[in-house]
């Protein structure tokens, strides 16, 4: 069996995603953008059950999937979907001294994500999650 194309192109596709996220956010470096993306993924993950999180991860490109599930403390209590400003502060708290995530970070990552995924599969999974999940990924 051949290596699936999404795995063969994972690094190139991730670089495209990072460039789209950087452009949407106005950040200037890959490192700044990576921290923002990781923060958004962690904030969303904390609001899902393990079962829902795995289903969500299944529609992400390979490297975003890896970021989403990496170091997951499955015993951590599930958090509620707070207001956008509270969740944005949580994004900004990741590596606080080196985090340049803007107030629009969740929206910016949503814009980039939708440019780089199978949107139909994404919407099917989002529709099966709590209603707040759809609002989280609103552009």
From TrEMBL:
Pfam families: DUF2267 (PF10025). InterPro entries: DUF2267, DUF2267_sf. It comes from the Bacteria. This is Uncharacterized conserved protein, DUF2267 family. It comes from Filomicrobium insigne.
